Amino acid sequence: MLEEYNVNINFYPHYRAQDFFAQDINEENSRIHFIRLGSKTVQQLLIDHALLIMDFSSVSFDFTLMNKPVIYYHFDVNRFFKRGILRPAEETFLGKIAQNEADLVDMIEESIEINFKNFDIELDNIIKYQDRHNCRRIYQAVLSKLDKENEKNEG
């Protein structure tokens, strides 16, 4: 599929898993690249890539806010959620959720075929503001709080 669509995959495992995977990575495939810890920042990886495939990390929210598609593959879901989950998985993980390897491959191919357009996800119930004005809102909220404190202390 990678050859057919002229696509590369960069594999950047969690920092605790880097050594584990580095031992078994076969660098012979020119389409799959192992990204070593420290060679790029996570922020740069998010900027540089069109699709994110991951398990549970909150980094996915940053990718979603960049209007890029995320595919989740929860390979150890029972172990990870052994103490429960606060919300249904479909509301917690914003993107598509692959149940098995075949689903994962199909979802990757679907994303490639739609030119990595973000999946249709409803964010309004989870992320109130989807703009670039959070700093302004925080600043205004702090000023408002300070004004109220000043009025209280003067009165």
Measured between the Cα atoms of the first and last residue, the distance is 71 Å
* Order of helix and strand elements from N to C terminus: HEHEHEHEHHEHH
Helix fraction, binned, reads 40-55%
- Average pLDDT number: 85
Identify the strand order in the major beta sheet: 3-4-5
SS strand fraction:
5-15%
Secondary-structure-based class equals mainly alpha
Tell me the number of helical segments per DSSP (H or I, 4 or more residues long): 8
Counting copies of identical and different chains, the oligomeric state is single chain
Biggest sheet descriptor: 3 strands, parallel
Short description:
It is built from eight helices and five strands.
Describe the structure.
This protein is mainly alpha-helical and 155 residues long. Helices cover 43% and strands 10% of the residues. It is built from eight helices and five strands. It has helices at 2-5, 18-24, 42-48, 59-65, 77-80, 89-92, 101-113, 134-154, and strands at residues 9-11, 32-34, 52-54, 70-73, 96-98. Strand 1, helix 2 (18-24) and strand 2 (32-34) form a beta-alpha-beta unit. The radius of gyration is 20 Å and the shape is elongated.
List keywords for this structure.
155 residues; mainly alpha; three-stranded parallel β-sheet; two-stranded parallel ribbon; 5 strands; elongated
Spell out the blueprint of helices and strands.
Layout: H1 2-5, E1 9-11, H2 18-24, E2 32-34, H3 42-48, E3 52-54, H4 59-65, E4 70-73, H5 77-80, H6 89-92, E5 96-98, H7 101-113, H8 134-154
Parallel strand pairs: 1-2, 3-4, 4-5
